[in-house]
Specification:
The structure holds 2 protein chains of 2 kinds. Chain A is an alpha+beta fold. Chain A has helices at about 5-15, 15-50, 95-100, 135-140, 165-170, 205-210, 215-220, 240-250, 260, 265-300, 305-310, 315-350, 370-395, 400-405, and strands spanning about 60, 70, 75-85, 110-125, 125-135, 150-155, 160-165, 180-185, 190-200, 210-215, 230-235, 255. Chain A folds into 2 domains: about 1-50 and about 265-405, no CATH class; about 95-250, no CATH class. In chain A, a hairpin with a 4-residue loop joins strand 2 (about 70) and strand 3 (about 75-85). Classes of the chains: A alpha+beta, B alpha/beta. The complex binds adenosine-5'-diphosphate and magnesium ion.
Amino acid sequence: MRFELILALRYLREGQAQTALILAGTTVGVAVIIFITAIVNGLQSSLAARTLSTQSHITVKNPDDAPTPVLDRSRLQVSAHIEPRVQRLRSIDQWEPILRSLPGEPHVTAVSPMVTGAGFASRGAANKSIAIIGIDPALYTGIVDVPAHLVSGQFRVAPGEAVIGMELARDLGAAVGDRIQVVSTEGRTDVFRVTGTFDLGVRDLNRRWVIVPLRTGQTLLDLPGGVTNIDLKVDDIFLAEDVAQTIAARTGLLAESWMAVNTQLLTAFKNQTMTTRTVRLFLILIVALGIASVLVVSVVQKQREIGILRAMGASARRIMMVFLIQGGIVGAAGAVFGSGVAAGMVWLASKALRQEDGSPLLETDVNLGIYLGTALISIVVGILAAAAPARRAARMDPVEAIRYG
Amino acid sequence: MADRDSLVGPDSSGHGGLESRSLILHLAGVRKSYNLGTPIETEILHGIDLTLARGEFAALIGPSGSGKSTLLHILGLLERPTGGSLEVAGQDIATLDDARLTELRGRTLGFIFQFHHLLPGFSAIENVMMPTLIDRGRVDAEMRARALWLLDRVGLKDAADKRPSALSGGMQQRVAIARSLAMNPPLILADEPTGNLDTHTADDIFALMRDFNKDEGTAFLIVTHDPRLAGRCDRRIEMLDGYAHPAEQLFVLATNN
Ligand SMILES: Nc1ncnc2c1ncn2[C@@H]1O[C@H](COP(=O)(O)OP(=O)(O)O)[C@@H](O)[C@H]1O
Ligand SMILES: [Mg+2]
């Protein structure tokens, strides 16, 4: 073993109580950092997953028609009155080549074309305002897993068939097998047999969605061969906004990520992340101060020994190393113990302890990267915290240490 | 041997190739000032001329505050002189940077201090191995064998695994002697090594150093206040007000020991 390491280990062993203290501090610091990261990540992923189980990650559509200034031609100046142009359903130009190109974008894992517009559904006396959702069921399942959210029937939309929201079914008094009539705002009418009802967990969707075949939807909405949006899924949900911007820039279309749509959720996430960061920063500071103060005391106590070591041929640099290594060892040992404690806490919170309904006490989301990252921080902080004491040890005048030590 | 009683004056020219190789120390006009360039500047050493041959056994005597320790620290390469020239084992230290100086110190010099200065956290044998560990960076069986042999020579083989705190003052000083010899250095500098030991123990320690000097040819420069011990050295150098003088130039006869 090397001289520096031998001395560092021996000094740590000698200072039993202090070493135990800073080791405990570092262990707790590492464990808490990993655990709160796991909890916050778990909370965010489960919230995001719940939100995104019924949403596309990105929706590509025509840019909203910009409001146009109304010109008063007689006076050749812009009148104060500006009104948005009346919205009319338009298909995305050249959507087929765009659809084919999208899976080539980085991170995009699924694409699905959709035609959507408003209408009314009726059965007997009941008449409800609805959203007509024309899709290719195989493709759309890649975006929203409707089959997993079925309440009754099955997810089958052959021509003349529709799958509708659970609340709409109740409002219309329609069960699987019943027929409903749909009229679009374009004035076209069709009749569908209900093959299934779903609960997507969002009231508005359950009350308004009528899922029909793409082609039928195109006819109903008077957009033959057209689609109004293309839905995408990406492999990392928190990259959705970046991917959306890339697509928008390339196609000139509007690409809205779930992050842009759910701004409140995103703000909440950001605040949580910020809080975690602050807590982490303070933990790191406290641990670093603990390590530094214990090592400074050790350097002062060992003044004379350091002088002797210098007299025996140890260079100032090697003395410095002895103390840097001590910091590194405390950081590394704290990382190992802290990771163990954190793993135990994560297991307790998410596996061992259950709520009454059998779901985990806390949602946690942690991976090897978080363990390794925190361990690395711990080691680096240990070494950095030791830097000042180590420099002090190296600067010690051996003669003074021997004369007065 | 030719230089055994010489105190080389500024005019002395005798340090040609062969001769300088037989010198372990060569000082010419060595000065040391503290707080150089400040109003409280004080010169402690005013120009020391001195040579010490390999294998010599010399006493450095003089009243307290005369600069003996200061001189020893300079000879031990722990401090640089502020004037004059110093050669250790033929190397002019002015030409060496701090790293080379540290290396030269580790390989050429052993220290014995008045307050033994063992490392309290290490056993006796670990203390003895420390200079070699510093030099080589690691421990091996040969180092351990030499350390054990040294401890045996100072009569402490059985105390090899004891911590310093479990040893008496005399025993600690013996460990310190063993440690100073770990690298088998050509010169050992001892600053009042028997200063706080009773007469009987002091005699033992002195005899030990004498033995190593005879058997290994290790040169010793020993600061002491004890005229009895000084009288048993081959040569006495007296420090007085920052100058070194030869004390009465007598060869110590073997019968004197
Ligand atoms: N760092 C220093 N600064 C100023 N004066 C010093 C310093 N170190 C030693 N001295 C002075 O140098 C003189 C010689 O001290 P020292 O070499 O210890 O003498 P000795 O060992 O012969 O008793 C003393 O007067 C002491 O006060
Ligand atoms: Mg002194």
